[in-house]
Design a protein that fits this description.
Elements lengths: L1 H9 L7 E2 L17 E10 L5 E7 L10 E2 L2 E3 L7 H13 L6 E6 L3 E2 L4 E10 L12 E8 H5 L5 E7 L2 E10 L2 E4 H22 L2
Parallel strand pairs: 1-7, 2-8
Antiparallel strand pairs: 2-3, 2-5, 3-4, 3-9, 6-8, 7-8, 10-11, 11-12
Length: 205
């Protein structure tokens, strides 16, 4: 399993800038996006016999994206060496996922949000067992979604909503009683693209 995932990332195509506007054909592309706050998230794939993707539900009291399903992550801080350092630091702070338990295998495409962030998604492999502790100030819950569920295109949909009077379309991946949408869902779609159609069949076995 590890070798298959690593091979997919070694052969991944050149990275392109993605954004919340990707499904809105009338919006300009984000190629010239400037003045954005740099951020990074960790996309942890847990190597159970049936692999999972580790996610969090943000606390309802947070000022930005309250209650949403997300990856561990946050803004780049002055002491961070690079996006990988940011992602690892945030994972340790938010859910006590130790750096030494994570093997970084690659990156997904950078992502621009309408809230003004440029996110670098860092993909890491994690070997169980895990002893995770959510930071009560930021994380309401920790959840794992089967990787084969994420890879199956039948489990994703295109939804829409209104923000500042403008209707936007976005990816959504409902899972049990959780609703994964927006940037997180888009990154999961990107993950499925990187692993590829052939990889989907192998990884889902």
């Amino acid at each position: 399993m590890r070798e298959r995932i690593c091979a997919c990332f070694r052969n991944a195509p050149r990275r392109a800038l993605r954004s919340d506007h990707d499904l809105d054909r009338t919006a300009p592309p984000p190629a010239a996006a400037t003045g954005l706050r740099p951020a990074a998230v960790l996309v942890p794939i847990v190597l159970h016999p049936e692999p999972t993707v580790l996610l969090t539900r943000r606390d309802d009291r947070l000022p930005e994206h309250p209650g949403q399903i997300s990856f561990p992550g946050g803004s780049v801080e002055p002491g961070d060496r690079d996006p990988v350092d940011t992602a690892l630091r945030e994972a340790a702070e938010e859910i006590a996922l130790a750096r030494e338990a994570i093997e970084i295998v690659g990156h997904l495409d950078p992502y621009v949000t309408v809230t003004g962030y440029r996110i670098d998604p860092v993909v890491g492999l994690v070997r169980p067992p895990l002893t995770l502790v959510p930071d009560p100030a930021e994380v309401a819950a920790i959840l794992e979604v089967p990787l084969d569920f994420v890879l199956n295109p039948r489990n994703r949909q295109v939804a829409s909503g209104v923000r500042h009077g403008v209707r936007r379309q976005f990816y959504a991946i409902p899972y049990k009683d959780h609703y994964i949408w927006g940037a997180t869902a888009h990154m999961l779609v990107n993950l499925a693209e990187v692993l590829g159609a052939a990889g989907e069949r192998e990884l889902a076995r």
